[in-house]
## 1
Amino acid sequence: MKNKPWDGRFKKPMNPRVEKFNASLAFDHILYKHDIKGSQAHAKMLARQGLISQHEAEKLCSALDEIQVELEQKLHPLDPSYEDIHMLIEGLLIKKIGDIGKKLHTGRSRNDQVAVDLRLYTREVSLNIKNLLQELISTLNTLAHKHSKDSMPGYTHLQQAQPVFLGQYFEAYLAMFQRDISRLEDACKRMNFSPLGAGALAGSSLPLDRQWVAKELEFDGIIKNTLDAVSDRDYIMELCSIAAIIMVHLSRLCEDLILWATTEFSFVMLDDAFATGSSLMPNKKNPDVLELIRGKSGRVFGHLIGILTVMKGIPLAYNKDMQEDKEGLFDTVNTLAACLEIISPFLKSLQFNTKLMHEKSTIGHLCATAALEALVMKGIPFRDAHHKVGEWIKEADEHGLPLADIADKALKAIDSDRHS
Ligand code: ARG
């Protein structure tokens, strides 16, 4: 059993079950690059402030570079006795360069360290999500232009309502994803501040230069209040809530397409390369991709509730509860990215049955509101016009005709009455 970096006051080694239970290395190891980046900036600042020598800072930075390569090559086992990625990297550093390695943590706590890592991580993944959203918006834009004149039935309550254009439909989703990008950009503005130098909670008596580290890490500034710096997880809650809203939009889009791909609707044909079959029924062609996106929205919503609940009852400042912020966040980001990566090529592969959609928009009673408005334009009060068109619909149903047949004749009759 290895000694802990904090075990000076302890008389007994840690219980192995506590060691296993306490560890986060199994999931926080993905933060290794962010942790190293933060540590290198911290080491350079320590040298600038005369707290370590220039030579020591260079040794620390180059050893950290080597450790990054070794971790990328998976050369180090994720031994839970290190507890977390921060202590694994520090342990490896001390093994590599001895006493100089022991100076890295000067003026720092894992509390401000993990907060830096997470902000660097959320900043990076937000950019990736934004790029994926932009790809989706450009796909929707192409579809909106291609189908700008293709009419189809529009629905409310999933009952035929009024004709719309297929292009208009894509534009509606495009608008939702544009709002998502603006939400993401807005959240990034609040996310991009540096907690480093806040220490465990109360800053440090050492002459640290918080502003310099913030600049070095391309943050827009520092988080002034040190209690807030180590215990704020708003940026995680914001990212998880934006992810949840994006998943709502994706899930609605998928639900529409699942419906349109049914034999009953037949508005869209799934491409063989993007559909799946049944192990039993030879006739089946299933929209698994769409159903999976719709289904995955559930876990993303779950993670949002998870982080809100973790944060709601903990006193200032850092509490170990906050280690629970990571798995949900990472799964949210990975799930969302996977859905966004598949949806654009999926949309591009679809064949829309625009002829059938157009036919369905001309039969039935979809022109009822247009007929009503034509009557209003002829000076008939709205309520009377509504009633009149209702009567025409009754008549059309009795004769098994589309409303247009009755309405056209009736509107012409009104015109000729007026002119005679
Ligand atoms: N693994 C910890 C976390 O993710 C790092 C911070 C630990 N700090 C502490 N004082 N125990 O929250």
## 2
Amino acid sequence: MKKEEQKRICVILAAGKGTRMRSKLPKVMHKITGKPMLMHVIDTALAARAEKVVVVTSPDMESVRDEIKNRYNDAVDNVVQKQQLGTGDAVKAAESVLAKYKGNVIVLYGDTPLIEQETILSMSGVLDSSPDTAVAVLGMESALPNAYGRLVMDKKGGVERIVEVKDATAKEKQITLCNSGVMAVKGSVLFKLLARLDNKNANGEFYLTDVVKLARESGHDCGLVIAEARELMGVNSRVELAFAESIAQDKLRQKAMEHGATLIDPLSIYFSYDTKIGKDVVIHPNVVFGEKVDIKDNVEIRSFCHIEGTKVHEHVVVGPFARIRPGSDIGESAHVGNFVELKNTKLEKGAKVNHLSYMGDAHVGEKANIGAGTITCNYDGFNKHKTEIGAGAFIGSNTSLVAPVKVGDGAVIAAGSVITRDVADNSLAIARAVQEEKADWAKKFRKKK
Ligand code: UD1
Ligand code: CA
């Protein structure tokens, strides 16, 4: 018989000082794959269909609460833990929001950003599996258990208590089954258990982990879910931040390859949490994707490109050595070559910008060809202006396009021109000094010297 699935609320603890980061930025706002750790956890909690997500912050984290409001409006509640008295005390701070709640409460940590939705759901499932199970702990086998709390198990496979390293005996320290921090507790007992916490331990803190022992003393069972240490790693320092980044990047690389992209040297390609990569895309070594990139099918990205905020359509070739900045859109079969920078620029189908160019705030028509060294002068020191280049236009090498300016369809611009006025469709514009030639001048000059 299938048990009914209880609803759940996720409480995310984020109030800790995070001193080991040595940073002015709150620890949970440090980014992994371009997104703050806390937002990774919030997004995962929402994906796990939490009825409500509650984030616990400290009084001085006003900016974090603002950011949460900006991103999630009313989907996420904020509560403040007045003093950082420990993880147990932090959950207590959510009592005002959760007091009468009878569903499952899943406690997540803002510094454990790689947790997956399925894991949250299986934690909730353990509570639903038996009326006697009031608590479920999420554990991991760790080869380097260092600072993690250790799970002390009973003979029947239940969790008896959690011991923090600082309070552990030498024998307990040898346990390799560790506490990830994630805990699921039935709403009906959570605050009764928290009320009984004390701070008689090495840190003088109210530990959430003591809820296990207290639940067992009251006759409840405590279940266990085990997940991989990679998924559950806690970030307390910059070294751990870098390690978490590498784990997250590996997952994104794997996902891109599973969806049909070829990564020639996966370890040298860096994605953003939201990078979209189509099928039969080939990415050469040393490419970095910033936020909001959408690559369609059959695109080739050659080495040493940096791409952000851009849509790249089918059959495009980019790079090597291209920098594509936000607001750009590269049309089907267009080419962007070496040492080219695009910013807020749309290239229509089949347009080519192949060598040493800067196109900013520009619109380049279908099949237009932009010669080597062409530059848009889009900024006058105060405002940005637009450059429009018509379909099939041919811009000679080393042209400066002084915006705002418009080059008509099929127009040709002579190499080396400085274009300050609009050019009509199909015209030739030459805007440079006329070449003079003085016969034998050089010969006479050398003789004189
Ligand atoms: C905690 C666990 C430990 C576990 C480890 C996993 C306890 C007592 N220990 O230790 O068993 O192995 O996580 O990573 O729970 N926080 C608050 N308010 C506070 C204190 C902390 O909101 O007063 C938040 C922090 O911002 C952080 C999370 O709780 O997101 C965990 O706190 P942290 O101090 O990092 O706990 P650990 O020492 O890592
Ligand atoms: Ca931690």
